[in-house]
Amino acid sequence: MKTNKMLWMGLLSTMMLGSCADNDENSQWTDPNQVQFTASIQGLVTKATDDAWEEGDQIGIFMKDAAAEWSAAGTQNVAYTTDAAGALSPAGTVIYYPSEDATVDFMAYYPYTAGLSGTTYNVNVATQTSQSAIDLLYADNAKGVQKADGNVVLNFSHKLAKVVFNIVPDGVTITESDLGSLTVALQNVNTTAAFDLATGTLGSAAGQANVNMLVDATAKTAEAIILPGDGPIEVAFTFNGETKTGTMDTPSFAAGSKYTYNVSLSMGDAENAVHFGNATITDWTDVPGNEIDINFDGEGGGDEPIEAVKVTDDQPFTGLDDNGQGNFTIKDVTLPSDLSYVWKWDEGSNESRSWRYMKASAYLNETSYESESWLISPALDLTEVTSPVLTFSHAVNYAKGTAQTALTLWVTEAATENWQQITITNYPTSDSWTVVPSGDIDLSAYAGKTIKIGFKYTSTASAASTWEVMDVKVASSNGGTVDPEPTPSGTELYISEYVEGSSNNKYLELYNPTDETIDLSQYALDLNSNGGTNWSNDGTGYKNYTELSGTLAPKAVIVYKHAEAAIYDGEATECGAVNFNGNDPVGLFKNGVLIDIIGTFQGGSADFAKDVTLRRKSTVAGPSTTYNVDEWEQLSKDDVSGLGQR
Predict the structure, then answer these.
(1) Are 267 and 174 in contact (CB under 8 A)?
(2) What is the CATH number of the domain that holds 238?
(3) Sign of the CA dihedral 460, 424, 177, 506?
């Protein structure tokens, strides 16, 4: 119903209720000169879809002689209703000018309430489940109006304030699927007040209570409409039965203001901050926010956020060298009670060598412990780096063959805390104290962004390795120190990437490894739903068969997506076959013959690729009618960093 731009609504219906000769009995005016209104909304969207009123919305309208007070007899609290197209019509009583040359004033409000006491509108924001029912809009601009002036324009504005949290789980300790248990409550806020429609003023606030925000786990938002007034407001976040609080230190919440904040959620002892950024209000100025530190499963509070380290082509970032741990932080996700730490700065020397590094180990007193601990870099600003490359040195011992799965490297954009695993080029070839270079790790996908790097250590009761990491450096490649993977070559189109992500975020990428343009009209994609007995094109079940069209250039890819997929910003074509959920083999057909497949046809309904991204290894040169897991690199859920980049 509301919009950030002026929304001109349709004219009131010119039809009168009952006989044209008689006025409604609730109106004192005797001349049937019906008033026509046009409504505009100022400020922010709260309940409406896009920029239209919702069908059935009702506003209340008052009219009086311009020389009289609102307490005098006049047309009082008349309901007008909108339809889906935005046209306004009387819900019962029709409003008329008293005469051709009468001068009158109007005021109006939303949402309409039949039981007003005079011009007093009672506000109550204690329950947020239907925000349209509590979002007070008010218009008092139409004064000194005559029939000759034409349409009466009612300019509505918001008289309450709104708070919106955009919730960003870190993707490591808390994922999107975990948000179903999250509740957010504003603590001890006023919930009731009386709004005087005659003067346009809100009376003293009362009814202090905890207000549960409207949490949408799918949209990852929490919203509340609140009474204007002074802050700060304490906010309680409850996750998996544990509640942590912090203070939203906004000095005052203004009427007509929308305060939108990005909220980062994570668990553990590292920085678990809820960030309250800027808010847009009706006149488009900014309201400064603040930061609240929230720790789940850890101590409350936290340090001030570290300012991003600027990295340029001629000024690299170096860490974990002679400066010790520096601004790296440690997040213990799983820390056994028998251990006081996993990651620790270590330095020393003996007759054969000296050392300075961060060391991770979950082995103590001849016992291996299950653990998960992260060593996280400060925020690195890569806005001035053209081709960023990460390098470091490391040594591994006692890994027992688990190094490549237990000791891993991750990257996230600092603003989103959405960690994605990236490949460490070189691991030590055997368990020893031999230090080896990691090799050049290409970060070009993050050029121009601010990122964090995470070294993730995991261990089990049977294998708790020691990992030593040192000499971390991020710098420009300066035109070619990175050796990219060879461009795959071959003679036939094949599936190069598969994304089975959250919600409907599903994608499939095809690659043309040949030196010729491929006519895609020869090809089709189909599902073997739940690993059953048929492809969907056999006509025995729901049809997910899609014939392709267009052409694909040599050494190029094309990305297909589910109609509701939203996490990949690149070009993608909607495709009915991209409707898998982890147990549906996907087949690529040429002229009706299967040439490539993910999953095993008729393999049953067990999940084989759920909540993962699968990327075809560069050593694969063509399609195969037999699914081989060794041909695919498995990445984390919602990793779309490689789509469109084969």
Answers:
(1) yes
(2) 2.60.40.2630
(3) negative
